[in-house]
Write a structure and sequence with these properties.
Layout: E1 2-5, H1 29-41, H2 53-63, H3 67-70, H4 75-88, E2 100-104, H5 107-111, E3 120-125, E4 131-136, H6 144-154, H7 159-162, H8 167-171, E5 176-180, E6 190-197, E7 200-207, E8 216-220, E9 225-226, H9 247-261, E10 267-274, E11 277-284, H10 296-304, H11 318-323
Helix pairs in contact: 2-10
């Protein structure tokens, strides 16, 4: 079993000055973002006329309230969007989407369906980040008390909305999801993430939490490895024995990215990868909250390739985006 339960709140007196303490959330959003940016980069950012990718991310957090952003942090809405796009482009055989088993607000209701659950599954909130249980009842008995307690916490508003000002989380439906577990091995599949601008893959990267000696590796769209973060950053970016996508796998990833990412000026698409199989994970318009310790060169390059949208321009697909947030879908065990 693998568990992540979000960031831990700091103890007193550190809480008085820490972003997750009781005071920081009451500051104006722009000031919060400036302070977080200063804390990460050691400099003030230009959020009015941003040039760097990190500055444009802050601009989005402060200003962008479009319908296309509103649905992007609702995991169920995103799965429906991606499923529709894949069918439209005849790509449904090129990537797997984990089945939704159950949707609700109380894990006690899910517990009543325990006899129908597969051995391997995932519990997570629909409207948050960094919170999940990865379960395998064949390996470890399920502690339902832990799951129920976590679900009761997760259904509440959290730091994404209240502290960091990530508006799209406030638009997502407050629900809990039981989902098919990606992959079929004993270890979690690798995380494969891609930064997209208007459907063009700017770069993609691996994240392997299980092997710190080869935990992170970034590649341009043509498959060329490069270092993303500053040389002084302690994160290891040596690819080590992480997989190198074959030309066919890379083209498949780029094709999927084009279909999914074209409506977005900037989005990150997250996948899982296991032995040549790509599973869709989620989308995020707030990549590392714009607080990734990227090198200066890459920060400017990322900003140069990202054309900020006109927030006053009409969107002919606005009703489509808003419809994705309507109603409460049912999982396969509820039909």
């Amino acid at each position: 079993m693998i568990v992540r339960d979000g960031p831990k709140k700091p103890p007193y007196p550190l809480a008085l000055i820490h972003p997750l303490g009781p005071l920081f959330r009451h500051l104006p959003l722009s000031l919060r973002r400036h302070l977080l940016y200063l804390r990460t980069y050691g400099r003030w950012g230009n959020f009015r006329k941003p040039q760097r990718g990190s500055e444009k991310s802050q601009w989005r957090i402060i200003n962008d309230r479009r319908a296309i952003i509103a649905f992007s942090q609702d995991k169920l809405a995103v799965k429906e969007y991606v499923r529709t796009v894949l069918v439209k482009h005849h790509l449904e055989e090129r990537v797997k989407i984990p089945a939704t088993l159950w949707v609700g607000t109380d894990v006690r209701e899910l517990r009543a369906l325990v006899a129908q659950l597969p051995a391997r599954w995932v519990l997570k909130p629909n409207h948050s980040s960094g919170r999940f249980f990865v379960l395998d009842s064949n390996a470890t008995p399920i502690d339902w008390d832990d799951l129920i307690a976590a679900g009761d916490r997760w259904i509440q508003r959290d730091e994404e909305e209240l502290v960091f000002g990530h508006w799209a989380y406030s638009q997502a439906r407050h629900l809990l999801i039981a989902e098919e577990r990606a992959g079929d091995g004993g270890e979690p599949p690798l995380e494969l993430k891609a930064h997209l601008h208007d459907g063009t893959t700017i770069h993609y990267f691996w994240v392997d939490q299980s092997r710190p000696s080869a935990s992170y590796a970034c590649y341009r769209a043509d498959g060329t490895w490069f270092r993303w973060r500053a040389e002084s950053d302690p994160i290891n970016e040596d690819p080590g024995d992480l997989p190198v996508l074959t030309a066919e796998e890379r083209e498949r990833l780029l094709e999927i990215n084009r279909a999914i990412g074209t409506p977005f000026d900037n989005i990150r698409a997250d996948y899982f990868y296991e032995r040549g199989v790509i599973w869709f994970g989620e989308l995020t318009p707030y990549q590392a909250a714009g607080l990734d310790p990227v090198s200066n060169e890459n920060d400017y390059d990322h900003g140069a390739s990202w054309a900020l949208p006109d927030l006053t321009a009409p969107d002919s697909r606005e009703a489509e985006w808003r419809a994705l947030l309507q109603g409460v879908p049912k999982g396969t065990l509820q039909r």
